[in-house]
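User: Hey, quick favor. My workstation is busy. Could you predict this chain's structure for me?
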Amino acid sequence: MIAGVTRRDLALTAPATGYLLVLMIVPLLLMLLVSFLERAPFGGVEWGTFTTVAYEKLVVERDLMGRLAINTDYLSIFARSFRLAAITTVLTLLVGVPTALYMTTLSRRKAAFVLFLITIPFWTNLLVRNFAWILILRNGGSLDWALQLVGLTQEPVDILYTPLATGIGLTYSFLPFMILPAYVALERIDRRLIEAAFDLGADRWRVLTRVVLPLAMPGIVAGAVLVFVPCLGAYVSPELLGGGKSLMIGNLVQAQFGESRNWPFGAALALVLVLMLLLALGLLAWLRRFGAKGQR
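Assistant: No problem, here it is.
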């Protein structure tokens, strides 16, 4: 028995442990195995034939003469995915945190109504919501009509099937994941601390930056993680709104398991993405721990 852990603790954590083991650890181990297998001639894998070709393909390729050459195509897709995910996280921060802060100033009834409005999109399938954005962003769509009505443009803006359209779709899809944890963190702040800061002569800006945001930082960081991680592997928004012009990792992985039928390479891509996310989250945890020690 582990020190400090009772049988009751093990019984209570057993469902979560079983869930993680069966639905996460085992599939990841299977993907790891598939990534080191050789691709079968007509798709699938050759069981028992191990190779590292799938990982080599990420950075190198063979030319017609059989010589190895550096291939940056897949690395550029990874870079684009991280860039779009980071931009989406920043945009959701800029929109979501002020929204959550405003909600804390409302009465409970009004705040509950705003939360109701924020969660309404979850009632509709993500695919349907992105199709709705196609109707809004396409040439001659709602956005074009509104801009031409107020005289800002005379020609179609050509937003659809661009990285900008993908960013709009991702920001819209993941904005609630930023607002909700930020609101919970802001709502739990002891108002007496804010009153004390004002009594000591702090202005609104100092109260916000020295008291409110530091106390709400755990919720804001949680929201950033909840946005960044799924956004990095997003598939629907880049596929529908990007139109293949802003290919992301999720689309590339789907293509390998789908049209290309290259399961080892698809598994290698997915595992590299998981590894990068784990490294990023580990770095974030280390920075938070280092910052906490520095404040003591």
